[in-house]
Amino acid sequence: MSGPLTFTIDQTAYLDAQGNLLQPLPAAFEKPNVLADLLRQMLMARCFDTKAIELQRTGRLGTYASCLGQEAVGVGVGWAMQPEDVLLPSFRDHAGQLARGVRMAELFAYWGGDERGSDFAVPREDFPVSITVGGHAPHAAGVALAFKLRAEPRVAVCLFGDGATSKGDFYEAMNLAGVWGLPVVFVISNNQWAISTPRAEQSAATTLAQKAIAAGFQGEQVDGNDVIAVAQVVGEAIAHARSGKGPRLVECLTYRLGDHTTVDDASRYRSEEEVSRAWHEEPVRRLRSFLTMGGSWIQQTEDQWVQHCQAQVEQAVDDYLNLPPRGPESLFDCLFETLPTGLASEQRAVVARGSDDG
Ligand SMILES: Cc1ncc(C[n+]2csc(CCOP(=O)(O)OP(=O)(O)O)c2C)c(N)n1
Ligand SMILES: [Mg+2]
């Protein structure tokens, strides 16, 4: 025994809620247009999100989980990853998927119940959305193990919520990642709620980041409403993993401004004051303020960009709504490489019934 063990959990932020700089910017963010581009991506994700809710409310999309308020996490993670890395997203990670190059029409198709929406043109090897809370964390460890065995300098990045960190899947994946030194970065979008369960009732741990310590690697916290902090710290974690030094865990502190999903009513379990306080912390506002104070962003720039986003989103809606429908036999697709005999005969029966009806 070497005496009591102690640990620290670093916290990183560059911008406060008003958009004031808290410490010098890392060099990568001093380059022209990098920050404006991050703001543009967050605004695009917000336009997508608003339209998705409109589509659901008008019966043209299935149940949908809004990413309102959490855009900085996905956009920061997308910025930090290389194209050849692999993202394993949860159901609220549209901003991250868009930042990776997934098309909006594909996301609409997925949320409209069409598995073709998970067959991304780009990025081909990113995983489909995990609806199962934390169920994709072991898959992330598996992807990272494959990279390691093949000696490929690639990193798996797994995104999930605060609630997922209570799951056995999470602990098992963290344990394997630690003991095998896998090139994987786990990113928690701690939005303070798991449906109606608040963070304080989720875990007695002071931070969720410290759960990495038990698995033998570093965990840290970032202000998840500060896209610069997310991009920088996740970028460092990815570089660490890519260079063979093993996994990292990054806890992004953010807030779910919307309902859990379109079938939830969050006003039943949280106060208006809490939500309006959170609106002062949200990620778009602070980066906009910072860039406006620096003179590189004006209202007109934003209005023009939002118009562009809306046009892109409308085009994606058209593409989604005009997707040719699939026959009922497609229900059997996408689960098995080769259908088990029982299901194969059921599929033949569905096809036969379809041609009888026709
Ligand atoms: C294994 C499993 N259990 C329960 C659910 C139902 N469920 C969907 S989302 C959710 C809460 C998830 O909370 P969190 O991980 O914090 O993610 P957030 O929804 O806040 O983004 C639950 C319990 C599920 N999808 N999967
Ligand atoms: Mg949550």
In short:
The mean pLDDT is 97. The protein contains 13 helices and eight strands.
Give a structural overview:
This protein has a 6-stranded parallel sheet with strand order 1-7-8-4-3-2, with helices on both faces. Strands 5-6 form a two-stranded antiparallel ribbon. Helix 1 packs across helix 3 (94-100), helix 1 runs antiparallel to helix 11 and helix 2 (71-80) packs parallel to helix 9. Helix content is 44%, strand content 9%. Strand 3 (156-161), helix 6 and strand 4 form a beta-alpha-beta unit. The termini are far apart. The protein has 2 domains: 11-326, Thiamin diphosphate (ThDP)-binding fold, Pyr/PP domains (Rossmann fold), CATH 3.40.50.970; 327-358, no CATH class. The protein has 13 helices and 8 strands. By secondary structure, the chain is of the alpha/beta class. Residues 92, 131-133, 160-164, 191, 193-195, 256, 260 line the site of thiamine diphosphate (TPP).
Provide the fold topology.
Blueprint: E1 11-12, H1 34-57, H2 71-80, E2 86-88, H3 94-100, H4 104-111, H5 137-149, E3 156-161, H6 168-179, E4 184-190, E5 193-194, E6 197-198, H7 199-202, H8 211-214, E7 219-223, H9 227-242, E8 248-253, H10 272-279, H11 283-293, H12 299-321, H13 341-357
Parallel strand pairs: 1-7, 2-3, 3-4, 4-8, 7-8
Antiparallel strand pairs: 5-6
The chain binds thiamine diphosphate and magnesium ion.
Residues 161-163, 191, 193-194 line the site of magnesium ion.
